[in-house]
Amino acid sequence: MRAVTTSHLGSLTWERAVDRPDLLAERTHAMISGWAVVEPEVADAVLVAAIDPDLADTAAMTEAYDLPLAASVNCVLVAGRREGVERVAACLVRATTRADVNNAVKRLLDVRKASFLPMERATEESTMEYGGITPLGLPDGYRMLADARVGTDVTDAGGTVVIGSGVRRSKISLPGALLLRAPGVEVVEGLALA
Predict the structure, then answer these.
(1) What is the pLDDT of residues 88-113, one digit of tens each?
(2) Rounded Cα–Cα distance for residues 87 and 100 (Å)
(3) Superfamily for domain range 15-193
């Protein structure tokens, strides 16, 4: 294993995620490893850092580790029904915004009403921990909708974003533009509200 530090992104020590399965949900590590086979640059671009699990929530984490709030990307799970069929999506939005569930998400899922998945169901179905849910390794059948601003460099972090790792004890960092290219991600203009 080789440690890769990113001095421009907070006070954390970042390492290649493919080398640290102990810091990732099982499905997340499998997804990143498979993606790296198809796109070899992913192995060096997707990093992970250990954190205090009590600081996994975005506000606490950004403050404790000197990370810009705008670099954090939240992954929220939303569902709605149409003709008895449930449609579920993971919405990726910067922490300084919020998913437009009542308009954009509802329209994209083509449902009459969309709402956040209850925590217990979200963690059970994703096999990830609350506070660590990530788009990398979600179950098949989940749409992954990403606000286009996730790929925009809005901080001094060089376009790097911070997302969940599937567990509360770590976070993943990667270029926002790369996250928008992750398998299955649909880029949506206006998915988030300021």
Answers:
(1) 999 999 999 999 999 999 999 999 99
(2) 16
(3) YbaK/aminoacyl-tRNA synthetase-associated domain (3.90.960.10)
